Structure formats: C-alpha cells, structure tokens
UniProtKB/TrEMBL annotation, chains A, B:
Pfam families per UniProt: Transket_pyr, Transketolase_C_1, Transketolase_N
InterPro entries xref list: THDP-binding (IPR029061), Transketo_C/PFOR_II (IPR009014), Transketolase-like_C_2 (IPR055152), Transketolase-like_Pyr-bd (IPR005475), Transketolase_CS (IPR049557), Transketolase_fam (IPR033247), Transketolase_N (IPR005474)
Protein known as: transketolase
EC number(s) recorded for this UniProt protein: 2.2.1.1
Amino acid sequence: MTFSKAASDEKAIATIRCLAADVVAKSNSGHPGAPMGMAPMAHTLFSRFMTVNPAHAKWINRDRFVLSNGHACALIYILNHLLGYKDLPMEQLKAFRQIDSKTPGHPETGHTEGIEVTTGPLGQGFANSVGLAIAQANLAATFNKDGFPLFTNSTYMFTGDGCLQEGISSEAASLAGHLKLGNLIALYDDNHISIDGDTACSFTEDVEQRFLAYGWHVSHVLDGDKDLEGLYKAIEAAKKVTDKPSIIRVKTTIGFGSKQQGLAATHGAPLKADDIEGVKAKFGMNPKESFVVPEDVYAAYKQIADRGARPTRSGPSSSRPTATTADDAIASRKLSETVLGKLADAIPELLGGSADLTGSNLTRWGNAVDFQHPSTQLGDYSGKYIRYGVREHAMGAIMNGLDAYGMHIPTAGTFLNFVSYAIGAVRLSALSHHRVIWVATHDSIGLGEDGPTHQPIETAIALRAIPNLMFWRPADGNEVSGAYLVALQSNSIEKTSKGGYVLVENKDADITLVASGSEVALCNEAVAKLSDKGIKCRVVSIPCFSVFDAQPIDYRLSVLPSGKPILSVEAYSTLGWAKYSHAQHGINTFGASAPAKELFKKFKMTGDDVAAKAQHVVKVFEGQTLVSPVELEAKLLAY
Amino acid sequence: MTFSKAASDEKAIATIRCLAADVVAKSNSGHPGAPMGMAPMAHTLFSRFMTVNPAHAKWINRDRFVLSNGHACALIYILNHLLGYKDLPMEQLKAFRQIDSKTPGHPETGHTEGIEVTTGPLGQGFANSVGLAIAQANLAATFNKDGFPLFTNSTYMFTGDGCLQEGISSEAASLAGHLKLGNLIALYDDNHISIDGDTACSFTEDVEQRFLAYGWHVSHVLDGDKDLEGLYKAIEAAKKVTDKPSIIRVKTTIGFGSKQQGLAATHGAPLKADDIEGVKAKFGMNPKESFVVPEDVYAAYKQIADRGARPTRSGPSSSRPTATTADDAIASRKLSETVLGKLADAIPELLGGSADLTGSNLTRWGNAVDFQHPSTQLGDYSGKYIRYGVREHAMGAIMNGLDAYGMHIPTAGTFLNFVSYAIGAVRLSALSHHRVIWVATHDSIGLGEDGPTHQPIETAIALRAIPNLMFWRPADGNEVSGAYLVALQSNSIEKTSKGGYVLVENKDADITLVASGSEVALCNEAVAKLSDKGIKCRVVSIPCFSVFDAQPIDYRLSVLPSGKPILSVEAYSTLGWAKYSHAQHGINTFGASAPAKELFKKFKMTGDDVAAKAQHVVKVFEGQTLVSPVELEAKLLAY
C-alpha cells in the first residue's frame, strides 16, 4: 500500500490539537503539549492502521493501543471520542479530570471503555504492551489455522522520554527483543522535553542504538510534526518486520502551534486563552469557538470505526479480583506447585512464569512448554511458561497486559521481598482490577541464610494496605488451595474461603492466638505448652485480611469474639495487626543471616516465646472483659 | 605500566577459589560458583589496582569496591580476609551465614568493616557505585588543587547478568553515561548462567552495544578464567578513559574447577565434598585440607594492603539515621524549599536532586549549580544539584552510594507515590543506616486531578513499617523544619523533635483527634464545629511514628492519655493507626481524579466529616474509661 493524503488529514490533526488545548484549558489542569505534538502520529496510526470496533469495545481481535506516556491522555480521550466510544461524548471531554467523570487525570482501564490499560506512572504502559503482544502471540500460535487466522491484531504503543528513562521499560524492552515479538510497534515521541526542561540535562543516551542492542527493529521520522507520509511508511515497514518488535523514533515539537511550542511550559499546564486562540487561527479553526469537531472529521473517524465493525465476538470481562499468594519457605510453595500443576491441566488460560527463580518459586508445572520464539529451540509461542529473567517490575506490568488482552490468567513468581521492586505495577494491577496471581515465596526470617537484604519485614503490610488486592499467607495445603480458588473465581469470595477461620476452638479459652502462614504452627505448639500451665487457647488463622474483612460481621465475630484477649503472632512488622488483636507479637527490626531455625529463636518466634507472651497477655487483662476490635470497628462504622 | 606475572598470582587465584568452595560448603548455604569464576578478575583488580587501607578502613581516598552481584559475597569476605581487615579473621569465614557473624548471607555495610555498600538485591550495587563515583567527582572538583589532589580514588564494581537485567541498572547506567563519570569502572561477569539456567532463555540482548548507547567505554576479555594479562590491560585502558564510565565484559566459567563448572548447579548450592577435593587437587592444593591460605598469598596481599598504608585521615561515620520527608501538596513543599535553601548555605555537604520533578518537588535552592560534566555547559562537577531524570529507583540507590562515600548528605525529590518505584533501594538505605533524605511531595488525594494512579494510599504505611526509617508527614512549617533537623542531626532524636505532640490541649476533652500532615488542619476545623455541639476536643499531631515511638512512655502518655477515646484522621489507609487510636477515619480505597477540594468531600475528609465521625465515636464510648493503646502497648511489652 502506498500513502495517499486525504483531504481530512490536516483538518483532523488540527481538530485534535485544538481539542487538546480546549480540554486542558477547561479543566484548568493537565498536559496539553504532548497530545498536540503527537496528533500527527496518532492520526496517521488511527486513520491508516488501527482496527477497532467502538460499538463492541471488547472485540477480542481489535488492535491494542497503549498510551504509555499516560499524562497525555487528552489525546486518547479525543481519539476515542472521534471514534464514537459511548463513554466519551463531548460532555466527558468537558469534564476532564473532574469528579466522577469518564476522563480521569490518567487513563484507567475498567473505568473508561476503550482504555486498554492503566497508564501514567511512567514506563508501565510500555511493559503492559509487551504483555498484550505476548498474549496475542500465544493465542495466535495456539488457535490460528491455515485459512482461519483468529488472532491477528497488532499492539501499538506511544512512549515518551520519561517512560524510556524508567528501568521498567528497559526490562520490558530487553525481554520483548529476546522474545522477537513482531506484533509490537512502539512510536517514541522524541520531543526533547521533560518536566525539568530539555532532556539534555539528564537523558542523552542513544535510544536507537539501545533498542538495536535489545534486538528491536529501529527507524525514525525526523519531522513528526508534518511528515504524514514518513509516519505512514515507517509504521508500514515496521508491520512487515515479523520477528522483531519495532520502535519508531518520531521527532516532534511539544505543544506544536502554541506560542510556547518546544518548551517545557506547554508540558503540564494549560495554555493561556490568547495562545489557544492563536493556535486555532493558525490551524484554520475559529479562534472564538471551543470543543469544535468539523463534520468531515467525524465522518473520517466514522470510517475508521466502520473498518472494525465486522462480525465480532466479545471477549471475557477483565474485571476480576487481583490476588497475591505468599507461600512460606518450607512447604507451601511445594503445595503451590502441586496445585498449579493440576490447575494447568484444567485451565488452559494459565500463563505462568518466574523472574529467574523457577526452581525456588516452583511455578513451572511438569509438562509446561516455555513461551519462546521457535528459532531459539527452547520452546514456541504456544508455550505457557514465561522466563521473565531478573525483571520483577516489568514482569508485574507484563502480567497486567496479559490480563488486559482478555484471554489469559497470568501467574508468576519471585521472592516476596522482590515484589517490592514491582510494587508500582502491583498497585496498578489492583486499581485496574486485573486478575493477576503472584506466587511470592520465601517470606520473612524463615528465608534464613540469605539474610536481611532478602527478608521482607514490611512487605506484607504494604501489600495488605493496597485496596482491592488479596494478600494471602497460607499456613497449610488447604489454605494454599483456598487462596488459588478465590484468586481464580471471579467475584465469588463469599462462596469460597473466608479469609480467616477458627483452627482450634475452645469455649472456655483464656486467650485467642491469631496468626498467618508459618506462625500458625507456632501457635499450635504454644497451645500445648499453655495447656500445661492451665491456660486455655483458641487459635485463629487469617491468611487474607481483605477476604476476611469482606465476611459478614456475625462470622467475623464468631472468629474473633469479644471477651478474652486476642494476641497476634506473625514474623513481620506488627503494624496493622491491632485491627484484629489487643496485643501483638512480631518483628519490628530487620532480620539477619543464619539458618531459619536459629533466626526464629533469635527473634523470639518459637512456641515457647509465643506461650510466654500469651501468658503475659492473659495476666495483663485478667478479670477484664475486652471488646473485640472487630466488634468495635463495626460499631464505629455505623453512623 | 606493563603487566608482569607474579609467582603468587596463580596460587592466590587458586586459594580464593578453594576458599570459596570451603566457605559455602561449611555453612551448607550460599553461592560458590560466582566467586570461583570471578577469582581471576578479582585478584587482578586487587593486586594491581586497588588502593585500600585495611587498618584505616574508612580512609576517605580509598578505592571503592562494590560487589553488585552480592550473592557472590564469599569473594569479598575472602579478599578482605587476605587483606587483613580486622572483622574478617579465618573464624569469620567459617561462620559464613551463621547467627551474629560478620559474614552475613549478603554483604551489609555498617555490619562488616570493609564493605562499602549493602548488596544482594540485584542491581542495587550497580547504582550505588554510580553514587560513589558522583561523590568522588564532586569532591575532586571542589577540593583538588594543582599539586594537591586530595580526592583521586576510583570506584570499581563487579556486576552479573542479574544486575544488568534489573531496570535499576539501566537507569543508573544511562545517568552515569550522561554524567561522563570516568572514575567508574565496571567488570561484567559474563558467565552466561542465571538461576533458571543458560541466559539464552531470557537474556540475549547485546550488552556491549547497550552500554555504547549509554555513552560508556566498552571492552571485553574473552578468557576471564585465565587471561590475567588481558584483564590487566582492559582495566588499565579503562582507567585512561577519563570522560566516560567503563564496562569490561569478562567471559568467565561459573564454578571454574568444579566437575559441574559452567552449569547453574554451581550457582546457589555448595559443591559436593568429592568435587571440592577435585578442585583442590586441580589447583595444586591439598585435597584433604580446608580453609588453607599459603603464606606467600598472605604475603602478596599484605603488600597490597601496605600500598594503602600511608598517612590518612578518617572519613566521617556513615551510621546515621535515614529519613523521609513527606510534604503536603499545597504548602509544606514550599516550606521545604525555604528550609533547603537555608540549609544549603550552612551545610555544604548537601547534594540535592529530583527525578525530573524539580519544579514540583521544589528541591533546588536558588543559587544551586547543577552537577554536570563541564562539556555540557549546563553545570560542572562541583555542582550540588543532580538532575536524576525519571529514574526513581536508581536515584534511591545512588543516594545510598553518595552517603556511603562519607562526605555528603544526599537529598532528592519525587512524588510520594513514586517512592514506591524505589522502595527496593529505600529499605536498603534503612538497613544500611544511610543518612538519606527523600523529599516526597504530592501526597494522598490532595494531589487532585492527576488521579488515583498518582495518589498514594498505601505508601505511608509501607514506609512506616520499614525499620530504622523515619517517615515524616509535616503539618506546618515548624514540623517541616523539625523533620529536617532530626534528619540532619545524627543520633540525637531525643534532643530534637519528638515525632508527635499536643497541638490543642483541653483538660476536659471528650475526645482526642490525632492526625498528620494536611489532616491536622481538618482536625482544627472540627474542633470549632464540635465545640458548638458541646463536645470538647484535644488535637495531636504525629508527623513521624518512629520518632514518637522512641520517646519515653511518660511523654507518649501525656500526648495520648488513657480515659477518653482517640480518633485518628488521615487521608491514607487506616491500617496501622490502631496503635495510637481507638477509632480510625481514613481512605481504604484508591483515590480519584478531580480538584483536591472535591476529592476531600467525596472521600469524607472535611472538617464536617471529621466532626461527625468524632461525635459518633464519643457516643459509642460514652461513659467508658478507655485505656490508651500507648499504655496498653507498654504494659504488654514489659514481661
């Protein structure tokens, strides 16, 4: 195909630029410069290449568009408005960044139809798009047959300087190059401006050479402000390269058309009213009118939308709970391996992986095939196990992309401590309602000799505090299975595991011990020791705070009733446990290097230590009738 | 200088290899393969180039050695043993990874003399070394005069495949190339093996080309197992390149000498006894003896140590508290800017910066000069302000390196939400007792229109749970100043701010409102509203949990006394506040995009909302005498 310019091209680009200025000005907040600068590349991509179906936004074989520089989201809202997505009538463009609008400050999938992934935190979208491309490649290799190509879509991604500076994009780019993902095309908005000003102040690497080093197809368009034919040809050429991901460096002018074009001033604040008038005059629009779309521009975008309006089937919903599974160091990761093996046979959607800790996380089931380009002879694209390399942050964001595609259930492993490296992606997973399963092994001081650099003390509370994320810390095989069950069954938390339950009941108990994971066993030990001293105990296991919190109050009170004291026991920071207990036993320092058994002694985490602490707690509260924190919380909420 | 082989070279390398096998075998835990493989490059570097003074380990102009692949720490423990560091007699090599030893599972600075930075979490050491190199360059530019070169040391860093896969190393490498740090030399142990096996499964990028793209001097040694002359020449050539950092790719064989050499089997588990005997026989050592160092090897390392034994001055201690300052979105970052400006005049050690948010974080004082290579004409090496680019994780680890050098007080800014990207470095900062100051602006929903992708809800609790880290959330100018004061004054927490205090006292109060940051003002508003209803309030501000917790119990009880109910108010996850309060008011979901004022309404964070909640709390607890959680905690601790 050759490029032929349409009469509506310049007008459409002018419309996008003027709308971007209007949208940000009306909300008096946001980023006009990047959408104005990227308008030509966006219009060229959408008008000549993108196949989507706004009437069936979830059509599974649609091309995916990811705006990794998500602060430029006025651009995607405008494009999707022009395409006719129902969430984006003109009123929504006018409600940009306002309360309860469909046009939040950064794009959120699930919140706004037509937004594939949640972007804005820089670099996330870059890695998401690698996940979207892997998903497509895997489905194509699995289901496409000669003459019946079911999965043929491309993934297009826009990225800015900021994304390319973030380490997560380096991780994702290196992996994408290794995997030879020819279905992924990135357009790099090289506008030479970041918030601190000219990128000369901190970002002077040779980006093209860097991506060549990763094994990408690399090209450039030197006049991204005007050269539509150059943009067209670069994308066309990239599409022809099927064994490498592509990146096209597009030199653009930020805020093109503004009096301040090319300057950081156009990056993160609205243009002034007179400047906007000037922009409109320059582009042949009426300077006195705002939020204007000429009819022929709507018509051109109607044609684009029609291109995708063919018989479709809708994809599965991607609004499913996020889940994290934390396994203890000794046994439960083996239990997890067993469960994963059985699940993989029953659930072909599972797409596993590990950040170079396969043998430690036990995340690879027996008959798994690696997801690799066939030329490597290490696997093929129908494989269901991804070797992520030591790239935790990209792994997290790639899993988000895999889920966003709509046909996979991604699971992947690393040490719990290194989920911290990826927490930027994990919180977006939760915000975006991605069903993503982390297998986070080797928790707390139980990890032993690797020492405090590898022993998470604060990670559990950090994950427990993320809304819409289930952090599980199973104590035995049943809890491992329960965690997977809840993670896999969408929105049916109530019907399955309850997140917390009574393990040892005793109607005459003097104290309740509440714990998770390995420390449940310590509590059981302590019960016997305390019994010898005439102290009667109940034991409660709470493997998952958020699932337990979702249970009816009567159930929660049956688990943690008022009356006698409750003592929490966990080999982590005690912070947060006061919501379930009157006293806390834990570790509020960093760990140390030694065999696990000795560390549990050093940090007072033995059955004897728990018994001694419990005895003290019973004494302190002797004769008092205590209100359960659960009862108190319920009372305090009801007003 | 030309290379001449010494008689002791081969013997020293054999000694290091056999000791590495012995050390890991005795502890039955650890990583023998990498130390065995890196022995020739380590010996060449130490014997021919490194200048250190084991008797004065903190001598400021020593060469810095960073083992970024910290799991190979048997290597550095062995080298430092040979050099005669007092923390590392032979008994300590035999106590590898055991309780309370000086040889923990991964190297910890502050814990073991001669360890420059804490490494193991992959990629951290790489970025630390960039910080060490920046520190040297800055001091040299500031203090060296013709004929009086005070600061001349080099920073040498070993890195493995894993470090290079982590995004943090990409961030740091790109910045180091930009800054043209000719005093930094990395040796890449290219052994083609990671935990999942051959790097062919996930890491096939062209590392040399990637570093050329970053602007580094790049070379390689193809037989790193034996070619000492090649190693020598490569390092020598790298030292001559003074306007670029250098990386030397050294092809080695993991576990060289073992029956399993070249295989992942030698990576993370001890070699078998018979294999170790074979290694010793192969290298001319007695197979039946362990932990042997020939006298001429000790003698050779004595000579190395003597090279650094010249008149020295000791550097300042680097054991100082870590601090984080969180400023609210409107005013306190401006207060921070004022304080920083005054501090910069008084404290030349301050080395500021921001991850491309200078204008938002307000971290750059008025007369600051950028730290830039003079050829850029954007600053010079004596400059005190670093443009980190959008590289939060590297920024965190580089600050750790800056502090590790011993002469600077690093401060740097980003949004609080993006401290999450760097939390892997932040926890090591705390573990290593680095005095590092983060200026983390734009907290919670107060950030407004940027929306939930940028609004931290869970970050405060995550940081509060990190041991040895002060997370401050100041409510006014005094608290901003107090936070800086505590952060800057080593180990004098008691003498300065108390972390929490009574803002509004009322002897007849019906309730205490406890808050931090912006919500302190809401509590003050609520006081007036409640007064109209006949409810009397106290208001307490706790800007820093860990500093408050360090106060005497009498003081803490005077702030949060038993008797009447205590309600916490904070626009974050309520998790953790039960340690100070009977009831909590907060945000346990993600935020949203809108002007801040509207968000505070939507999330029930107005003076009216706080008053309503307080009124309810008073009613629920009417007639009860409550025990302060602070009193309870003290009682429970004393057993």
